[in-house]
Amino acid sequence: MKRQAILIFSHELTGEQKKELKDKWGVNRIVPMPEDILETWGNVPPEIPSLKGFVRPVLEWLVKVAFPDDVVLVQGDFGATFIVVNFSLKLGLVPVYSTTKRDVTEEAYPGGEVRQNRIFKHQMFRRYEE
After folding, report:
1. Cβ burial, residue 95 (10 Å; 0-12/13-18/19+)
2. Which of 36, 55, 60, 95 has the maximum number of C-beta atoms within 10 A of its C-beta?
């Protein structure tokens, strides 16, 4: 079965994430966002009351590149993500997001200062559910 993973996601995939997409989700092709769509997705304005018009270019691009049952990795602004996930479900796509484990270490310094170091490690892709 040929299956794509379409990235609506502002970061680079790790090797571990690529391996999971291939081995667990049956993905044989990863489709990143073109630069203009990536620029839109990564810069959602906080001052506009509705995102429907703003994310329209993302949805139009998704329609052009997606086939039913493709995986769509969607992460970003909560409102924009909600719109894209709902749209993906209506198209018969499989929207997913990355779950992570967070390890936090703290170092105490003289004068009461504390430095925290956070390391996020990918655990799995989880399907958005209706």
Report:
1. buried
2. 55
Examine residue 116 and state whether it is found in any structural domain, yes or no: no
Nearest by Cα to 77 from 104, 100, 107, 50? 50
Owning domain of residue 22: 4-98
- List pLDDT tens digits, range 10-55: 989 999 999 999 999 999 999 999 999 999 999 999 999 999 999 9
Its pTM stands at 0.85
Residue 89 lies in a domain: yes
Domain tally, the chain: 1
Q: Which of 64, 74, 70 is nearest to 11 (CA)?
A: 74
Instruction: Report if residue 111 sits inside a domain.
Output: no
Q: Would residue 125 count as lying in a domain?
A: no
Angle at 4 between CA 1 and CA 61, to 5 degrees: 140
Q: Does residue 34 contact residue 58 with C-beta atoms inside 8 Å? A: no
What's the burial of 7, exposed, middle or buried (CB within 10 Å: 0-12/13-18/19+)?
buried
